[in-house]
């Protein structure tokens, strides 16, 4: 089997398009606590494009590294895909990091504020 030449974020967009074409109401995320909070496959790419545009307007460029501290949620995927679409890389940080720990991550990554 030949591996795809597409970047991973484009392969994920393809999968989302396929799911939403097969069923326009296909759900990618359903909040287990409320069951009313839903994210649909059809909304992934437009949301990523919107965030990627905002990141570029803020000066994010290819080769930059973004740190995120999201819990396991759909916004994590959206942010990661937007950063990848901009040509950047995503580094994980913990929401419970102290300021010092986060500063250390930022220093190691040489990420800009």
Automatic annotation (TrEMBL):
One Pfam family it belongs to: AMP-binding
InterPro entries listed in its UniProt record: AMP-dep_synth/lig_dom, ANL_N_sf
Main location group: other
GO MF annotation list: CoA-ligase activity
Protein keywords: Peroxisome
Domain AMP-dependent synthetase/ligase residue range list: 18-98
Compartment(s): Peroxisome
Any single Gene Ontology cellular-component annotation: peroxisome
Protein name per UniProt: AMP-dependent synthetase/ligase domain-containing protein
Organism expressing this protein natively: Caenorhabditis nigoni
Lineage: Eukaryota, Metazoa, Ecdysozoa, Nematoda, Chromadorea
Protein encoded by which gene: Cnig_chr_I.g3893
